[in-house]
Structure to design on (347 residues):
């Protein structure tokens, strides 16, 4: 056993993991290395800033702050920091300006209507124009779109669709205010049939901080052969009914990622940007590395140290973690990520 590996084993022992948990993480770690090698990618999304540097993949809301669905964990709050556009022409103007500024791509998103759908049809021609006239890579938070809409988005130039997947009717109806799980399953099928890359997201602790149907969500997702999987952790937001809930513990997140890895050995798994930024959050990051994640958004210095300690090869990319690694998306030179890391460590 290498000296670095021993050091990290000691860290895990101090976290008081059970024998069962250690066995699970070990199996997930070995499965990850067998299928993904030793590379690990850290991501800086476009809405995040460290010092004078910012990610190059901003989120754009096509509905402003408006959302009729009003999910219990969000209530539209997540739209507030995004770039807002006024109509299709506004989207074209904003994206062309971003392209001139050296942005790599955009995540198009927004609030949903009461059926969980976004007004994509209104923007199809604008997206076509953006795809034709810029080199921007285009992702969408699709919402629960139908097959015709997904096919139109694919033809317009959208590359990938991000979609929240919950594993129970209770979570779908009581948290997302949907009619049930059928809109989610129909949307997953529509995305796959359209040819869009599927990147499902699981919100761990979605039901008031409890891990309830997340494992069922993994079973659902596995059937659709996703391009990547992103696991985020419930963030209690002021002004929502979940403001004061307790989020899942680090080991619960570690277990979830490990199970995802064993169920989907070849799928890239990311610990996404929404998660606690405290001691528990830092431990989540370290456990995620051991549990089989191959990507992480908005890293901490602890995560960098842990990845180095276990002998992983670190890569950095200034985009959403839904994208595969591309050398031309990591900055002007290979030191770009190192600079970002240093800035985060000092913050």
């Amino acid at each position: 056993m290498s000296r670095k590996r021993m050091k990290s084993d000691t860290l895990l022992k101090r976290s008081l993991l059970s024998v069962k948990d250690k066995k699970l993480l070990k199996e997930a770690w070995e499965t990850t290395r067998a299928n993904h090698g030793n590379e690990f990618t850290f991501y800086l999304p476009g809405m995040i800033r460290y010092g004078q540097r910012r990610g190059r993949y901003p989120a754009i809301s096509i509905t402003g702050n408006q959302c009729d669905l009003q999910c219990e964990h969000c209530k539209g709050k997540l739209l507030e920091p995004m770039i807002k556009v006024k109509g299709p022409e506004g989207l074209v103007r904003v994206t062309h300006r971003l392209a001139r500024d050296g942005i790599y791509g955009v995540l198009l998103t927004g609030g949903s209507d009461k059926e969980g759908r976004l007004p994509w049809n209104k923007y199809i021609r604008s997206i076509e124009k953006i795809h034709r006239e810029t080199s921007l890579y285009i992702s969408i938070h699709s919402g629960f779109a139908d097959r015709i809409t997904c096919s139109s988005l694919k033809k317009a130039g959208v590359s990938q669709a991000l979609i929240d997947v919950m594993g129970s009717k209770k979570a779908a109806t009581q948290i997302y205010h949907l009619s049930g799980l059928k809109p989610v399953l129909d949307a997953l099928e529509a995305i796959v049939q359209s040819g869009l890359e599927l990147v499902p997201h699981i919100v761990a602790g979605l039901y008031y901080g409890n891990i309830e149907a997340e494992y069922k969500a993994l079973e659902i997702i596995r059937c659709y052969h996703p391009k990547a999987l992103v696991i985020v952790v419930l963030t209690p937001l002021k002004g929502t009914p979940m403001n004061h809930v307790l989020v899942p513990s680090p080991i619960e997140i570690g277990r979830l990622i490990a199970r995802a890895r064993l169920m989907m050995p070849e799928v890239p798994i990311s610990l996404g940007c929404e998660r606690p930024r405290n001691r528990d959050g830092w431990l989540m990051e370290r456990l995620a590395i051991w549990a089989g994640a191959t990507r992480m958004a908005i890293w901490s210095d602890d995560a960098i140290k842990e990845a180095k300690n276990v002998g992983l090869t670190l890569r950095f990319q200034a985009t959403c973690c839904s994208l595969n690694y591309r050398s031309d998306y990591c900055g002007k030179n290979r030191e770009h990520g190192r600079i970002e890391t240093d800035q985060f460590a000092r913050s």
Summary: Residues 19-36 form the longest helix (18 residues). The mean pLDDT is 91. DSSP finds twelve helices and 13 strands in the chain.
